[in-house]
Task: inverse folding
């Protein structure tokens, strides 16, 4: 008998909406404190300065407003778990547009203010089941909001890495949604139940083909913290680096996830 298909995780729409707005507000407040010298610093994203990264963060949210402005499509074309694997194709164009946006808007405070006002206004009127026409395929507003937590959390971490002492806070609900989606993504990429991936306190998933455990501690266990998992999943940190720095524990012959990571880049 084939294994039962795992039920897709659900997310609370109200909490996810609040998380997106809260994380954007954290970034907006931090960007408003940056000096010209800090905005000119390099980031861990190839060719991007802090200014370009800051501009890109507004694009991540403005994409939501623009999608809500478009005509609603007839049917869903993309499930939430498909999204992490569908983003690479547009990376070059997104990078170019981020650089252009940074050049077009030297006043980042004004750009953030306008972006924040637009998204708050549109979300206030949009039902959770609203379908959005997106370059990667039509999906529900509820699902797309989860993808925005990934964009915001990942790039907030990039911003903190680039500017010493900035320490932009991470909204707990945004961090949780981001972690859970990227944990579920590894289970979708390598379905199975021989390895348990634990990212406390937010996610536990099983993946990788092989013998299935039925009780007690599984024979193959990977455990790490949310930010380390997010960095692994998005290529900010390699599996080898994480193991060398003792940022992740892995026990069992099927606990090496190096061949599965990153999930996004």
Result:
């Amino acid at each position: 008998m084939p294994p039962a298909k795992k039920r897709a995780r659900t997310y609370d729409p109200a909490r996810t909406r609040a998380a997106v707005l809260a994380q954007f507000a954290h970034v907006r407040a931090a960007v408003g404190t940056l000096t010209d010298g800090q905005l000119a610093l390099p980031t861990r994203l190839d060719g991007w300065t802090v200014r370009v990264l800051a501009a890109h963060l507004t694009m991540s949210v403005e994409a939501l407003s623009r999608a809500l402005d478009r005509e609603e499509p007839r049917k869903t074309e993309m499930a939430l778990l498909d999204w992490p694997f569908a983003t690479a194709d547009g990376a070059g164009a997104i990078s170019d547009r981020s650089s252009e946006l940074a050049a077009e808007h030297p006043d980042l405070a004004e750009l953030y203010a306008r972006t924040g006002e637009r998204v708050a206004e549109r979300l206030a009127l949009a039902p959770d089941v609203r379908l959005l026409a997106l370059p990667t395929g039509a999906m529900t507003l509820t699902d797309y909001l989860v993808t925005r937590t990934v964009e915001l959390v990942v790039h907030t971490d990039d911003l903190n890495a680039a500017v010493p002492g900035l320490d932009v806070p991470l909204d707990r609900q945004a961090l949780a949604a981001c972690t859970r989606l990227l944990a579920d993504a590894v289970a979708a990429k390598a379905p199975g139940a021989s390895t348990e991936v634990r990212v406390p306190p937010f996610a536990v998933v099983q993946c990788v083909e092989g013998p299935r455990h039925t009780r007690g501690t599984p024979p193959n266990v990977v455990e790490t913290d949310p930010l380390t998992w997010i960095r692994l999943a998005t290529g900010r940190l390699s599996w080898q680096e994480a193991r060398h720095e003792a940022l992740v524990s892995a026990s069992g012959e099927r606990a090496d996830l190096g061949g599965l990571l990153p999930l996004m880049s």
